[in-house]
Write a structure and sequence with these properties.
The structure holds two protein chains of two kinds.
Chain A: H1 2-27, H2 32-35, H3 39-47, H4 61-74, H5 79-92
Helix pairs in contact in A: 3-5, 4-5
Chain B: H1 2-39, E1 51-65, E2 68-83, E3 88-98, E4 104-118, E5 121-129, H2 133-136, H3 142-145, E6 163-175, E7 178-187, E8 191-192, E9 207-208, E10 220-228, E11 235-244, E12 259-271, E13 276-288, E14 293-297, E15 300-304, E16 309-320, H4 327-330, E17 332-342, E18 354-364, E19 370-379, E20 386-396
Classes of the chains: A mainly alpha, B mainly beta.
């Protein structure tokens, strides 16, 4: 009985949190300040969250695409961040 | 009745509208597909859409204490990353650890296929690291960790999920100036360890978190929800949890023992004129259903039970003089970390809290390769204070 209650509470919390995400997702537009950020700035800000910034020259264009996709999932980057950062790295390598 | 008659009169018109809508859609598809057909001639070169990167890291460890000193065998982690197309991505991790006889033991750490459904939703399935605290998740790879050894109770030695086999959904999206992220999963879940033979090294009541096969029909569900409240992504705060209603072997008297774990973490960095400061921390707690276990040793068989709750936490900070004009000083980073692991007091594997203070000096050879000089002071339950000097070399390729 106690386990079922725990299960229900956890399910409820996760469901409410997920619904909130969807509401936020659909109600918030990306502010102009964020949308205007160039790839170089996003590269510096997001890589530094966990590690030193890698120099663009170490990988080829195709390799940066694989890295960008990896970081989308590893660091939960937004679609816009991945697109801009990979475009910057490909232009600068 | 009249309403039904009216509706039946309108039905042919509605059907016509539906057919027109479908054919209209089909027409749209055909107009999009047409240019593709003209481009894909047999002799046209196909540049391909698959991207591949063979990456990984190699590390070695030297430990020196009062009891002696030793080189810990080499560890090699191979991580091929394959972007199959715009939507599919395969993440792989194979760990190779050198054994005493010089041979290598292989272990599949990660095999995780991602399918991106939309800009904010990706489904994934396979074997993956639990999105569980920044020790395993964000700082899980050696080149990111900054310390030569992990915090006590928060790696493989702790009471919380480490590896998972199952599937999940994850994503990140902008929410005003802030960013939000989530990673939810359904997995085989933890397995209760029951060993009735002897009290020495007996882990009865502990969970096994890295098993690949399932021991019952129940699944564990859990996940992480995070927020980066500042527009420059300098702070991340996550909350995470997991619940498994059954953890014992199917059909055994321990089948219905549940396990619930939850916790929170944070990571903050600030770049100042002369240096970069980083602060990070994590707390996690696991509650396992209580039970009475039988244990047989030299004195006979006896029952024992205990309050099966434990927690672990750490807090750490690092400083790197990024503003220094001197190249050598610029590539240094100092760090300090305090960690504590509080297992169930009366468990055969429990006792008083273990405490650990780790000091570190890192020299960055490249952006990702490093040499760490660490000093570790650790007090485990029932043992004397153990001081260790550690050197780790790590090369990322």
């Amino acid at each position: 009985m106690k386990n079922i209650l725990k299960l229900k509470t956890l399910s409820l919390i996760i469901s409410i949190a997920f619904i909130n995400f969807i509401v936020i997702l659909n109600s918030c537009k990306t502010p102009a300040l964020i949308a205007a950020k160039p790839g170089a700035q996003l590269w510096a800000e997001n890589c530094t969250r966990c590690h030193n910034t890698p120099p663009p020259s170490i990988y080829s264009d195709a390799q940066w695409e694989a890295v960008g996709e990896h970081m989308r999932y590893k660091a939960n980057l937004t679609d816009q961040e991945v697109t801009k950062v990979v475009a910057f790295l490909k232009s600068a390598n | 009745m009249q309403r039904l008659q009216k509706l039946s009169r309108k039905l042919p018109a509605l059907c016509l509208l539906l057919v027109l809508a479908i054919t209209g859609k089909a027409q749209d598809s055909a107009t999009v597909a047409e240019p593709l057909q003209t481009v894909q001639t047999p002799n046209s070169p196909n540049p391909g859409s698959q991207s591949f990167l063979f990456t990984g890291e190699a590390s070695s460890l030297f430990l020196a204490s009062k009891d002696g000193n030793t080189f810990v065998p080499l560890t090699l982690m191979l991580m091929p990353l394959t972007r199959i197309n715009d939507k599919l991505f395969l993440e792989t991790g194979v760990k190779m650890e050198m054994q005493d006889d010089g041979s290598f033991a292989f272990g599949l750490e990660t095999l995780n296929l991602h399918y991106r459904l939309s800009s904010w939703l990706t489904l994934h399935a396979g074997k993956f690291a639990a999105p569980w605290g920044n020790v395993l998740d964000m700082f899980g790879e050696g080149f990111v960790s900054r310390f030569p050894i992990g915090p006590i109770g928060l790696s493989d030695d702790g009471m919380a999920p480490t590896d998972l086999v199952g599937f999940g959904a994850q994503g990140g999206f902008q929410a005003g100036n802030a960013k939000m992220l989530y990673d939810l999963y359904l997995a085989n879940g933890p397995q209760l360890i029951v060993n009735e033979n002897g009290t020495e090294d007996n882990m009865t009541g502990h969970m096994s978190y890295d098993v690949l096969t399932d021991n019952n029909k129940n699944k564990a569900f859990g996940g992480k929800i995070g927020i980066l409240p500042f527009s420059n992504s300098s702070l991340q705060v996550d909350a995470f949890g997991q619940y498994a209603a059954q953890t014992g072997d199917a059909g055994s008297k321990y089948q219905n023992i549940s396990s619930s774990s939850y916790g929170a973490d944070f990571n903050f960095y600030k770049t100042l004129d002369i240096m970069m400061l980083r602060l990070m921390g994590q707390y996690e707690e696991t509650n396992t259903g209580n039970s009475t276990y039988s244990v047989t040793d030299n004195t006979g068989t006896s029952d024992y039970t205990f309050n099966n709750k434990g927690n672990s936490w750490y807090i750490a900070g690092t400083l790197r003089p990024t503003g220094s004009a001197n190249d050598f000083v610029h590539d240094l980073e100092i760090g300090a970390r305090y960690a504590q692991y509080d297992p169930p007091k009366n468990a055969l594997w429990g006792g008083d809290p273990s405490k650990q203070l780790t000091l570190d000096l890192t020299y960055w050879l490249t952006w990702s390769s490093q040499v760490n000089f660490g000093y570790n002071i650790q007090k485990d339950a029932g043992t004397r204070l153990n001081n260790e000097f550690i050197i780790r070399t790590l090369y990322k390729f």
